[in-house]
User: What shape does this take?
Amino acid sequence: MTTQVSVNPGVGLKTSHRGGYVQDLVNTRPSLDSTTLGAATTLVQTCRDRAEALLTDRPLPTTREEEWRFTDLTPLTQVKFVGVAVDRPVPSVSEINAFIHPETATTRLVFVNGVYAPQLSDLSGLPAGAIVGNLTTVASQYPQLSEYLGQQQGAEEIFTSLNTASLTDAAVVWLARNQAIDSPIQLLFVTTPGEAPEINQPRCLVVAEPGSSATLLEEYVTLNPGVYFTNGVTEIWLGENAQLHHTRLQQESQAAFHIGKTAVSQARDSRYTCNAVSLGAELSRHHLEVYQTGEQTETTLNGLTMISGDQTADTHSLIGYTRPHGSSQQIHKCIVDGHGHAIFNGKVFVPQAAQLTNAAQLSSNLLLSPKARVDTKPQLEITADNVKCTHGATVSQLDSDEVFYLQSRGIDAHSSRKLLTFAFAYDVLGQIPVASLRDSLSQLVRNQV
Amino acid sequence: MISQNSEVILAVRDLTAEVDGTPILKGLNLEVKAGEIHAIMGPNGSGKSTFSKILAGHPDYTVTGGEVLFRGQNLLEMEAEERARSGIFLAFQYPIEIPGVSNLDFLRVAYNSKRQHAGLEELDAFDFDELVRQKLDVVKMDSAFLSRSLNEGFSGGEKKRNEILQMALLEPVLGILDETDSGLDIDALKIVAGGVNQLTKPDNAIVLITHYQRLLNYIVPDFVHVMARGRILTSGGKELALELETRGYDWVLESETVGAGA
Assistant: This one.
């Protein structure tokens, strides 16, 4: 880290620094090795080139841009990140045991510092015909990957481009037509922070062919505290009448940076549910974008952010309707303690063609300390004239009548507040369909207050 | 059940209190002895509910004068949870809902906090389960209620029965029921009243705060007090409730010269 002495910390200086910053990050990517990538080499190279072109001369966004008004990336630029060292030891199964759920013991794919770890993965419980694996193993069987990888809308967003320009491998889940997988599938991204702050850029691709259904857990965790930067992208394609119940957990180190993209497209009659839980990182941002491309699609987004200390956690969501009879239910909850700062921006676009849309959005926020802050902004753009769209936002503290009710039953004030905070969070946590994850997060939230 | 030699459980003397600077209680006097059932009636805004919340220790109310002794101890010095553990129980008019916390877990935490206070060992889940199932009969509740989230999605009657179930478990020395009868149909009212009657013992006392005489057909009070303008204006036996039912409150308010306390 360098100290910069300047009479006037000039804007020009900062901008040029930020411009070079993105290129510096691209330069940390590993070079492609066609012997390990095999059939995927051309695909990965094409994706990288296309994204790198999008990044040319792009500076990092500043708070002067509307999209980044409340989230200052300066702390990120103050760290010089390096690529993941190739010789880093991979943890043992027992070391990551705490992150493996009984429900996913034989249906899990594990990446360590963004690199596929076959020795930690176990896919023996998958039914015949299900394709779950890393890019290189799947690419040879599925040449049509190129129709999906890097093809989702919103690819020009700077961190998405950065991830794609650095693409090396990916977690791939491919559900065949009408295939219903009962066991949840876990994509686990473990970080083992080292001496130098590293950038790792995990990538997921989920293709659900028509009529298929599955439950997916996507989890970002760390084995120890430390400074690092996770910049992840997940692309999800739901075919006609497909169904995906997706839970995304961001539980990075409290000193880490996390920027993540979830981009989903939904064909006609498909159903997508996302439970997004953000707990870790000093600075985090989740872009959650759902594009309904067919009629009568259903989208359910449940979000929970729980932060304290000096954490900043930003969620920018977008639901883009294009066709009639679509529906969406969105609830986003933030619990902010200490000097924490939570941001929620929820876009809902309902163009003229999307008649009879039914969209509901609720942003509900609980401030636990006088210094806690939340910025919440619903952003509905509706041009269709026969639709039902609602939104609401609340910011509150714990209700003294509720605390009193528990105290009047002999429960002390501190435990009462813990219980009520947990109850606030449980609206979202209760939606997680995997019992052991739901229970462990419930426990965590109860203890964190 | 009036008995001259019983212990004084609650002694309230010249109590004044305010909320956000507005005086609500203006010199309230009340004495409750073991074995007694007291009913406090009065028009809306008379300060009845405020009084019950002050007894239970709600932090939003400020006591500005007078004293409250609970079995000889200064109640006003105690936190709400200490009062609960020492034997005060308030059944709420509007019990709150807590999603994600099962009724059973909540009851066990509350029960064990009281045991701990009394220097007793906490009951484990198995023993507690057995105890709570016996208590369910008091309010004719199905055991399915125990696994549901606390009060979440409960009907008005179910919430009130759940309050009485908590009272049955915590076995308070002083049970205060704040409009527990409000909004109940006659069947639910009978169950709630039956529960309260089962919990009445020679060594405890009940204060019923109610708007309607109807409840007093099922729980027969030893004393009836009429409260208005932050004070008890008149007191009498159970027949006073019937008189209020036929004549309303106006005559009490007009003859305010009647002294407070029985």
